């Protein structure tokens, strides 16, 4: 039997991706002080911040699961160099969507694998999402349908739901857009012997 990894997240989309890809795993959500990490790395590029957050989550999970491979992941949305946190409330979500309107946002996704505090592998990817012009009426109707389900979503959308209505085009891997650089992760897991190569 393959080694079961630990997913240091309760993200439904990450759980589904691992399950559907046949990755044996257990779910153990792990909390880290994301705000402190973001303050410490305030001048970092969005890709570097996503990688740092993924690694911090994996290391925190590793502390709680000695001897096991722990997967930490993070996704964030950037417009130019501004990083958008998860919306604080519905009004904040509406403001984010209005700022994204008729612009291209970058969705950075990163994953890290750690065992006993040692980094085994990291992988990352970015997708470019072209947001169509969004009218205030559309934003309100969209939030009527999707709030609060998107409260924990970077970018205020679930691409597997009505969030696909926000975009005129997408460039990048589907799994990255869902919140995990799955192709790179599977390659690393095969290299570690967790998956058959």
What would your notes on this structure say?
The chain has 197 residues and is an alpha/beta fold. The protein has a single domain (5-191), classed as Maf protein. Helix content is 37%, strand content 26%. It is built from 7 helices and 7 strands; from the N terminus they run E-H-E-H-H-E-E-H-E-E-H-E-H-H. Strands 1, 2, 3, 4, 5, 6 and 7 form a 7-stranded mixed β-sheet that branches. Helix 4 (90-100) packs across helix 5. The longest helix is centred in the N-terminal third of the chain and has 19 residues, at 46-64. The chain starts with a strand and ends in a 6-residue tail after the last helix.
CATH topology, what is it called? Answer: Maf protein
First-residue to last-residue Cα separation = 14 Å
Q: What class would the helix/strand composition place it in?
A: alpha/beta
The coarse overall form would be globular
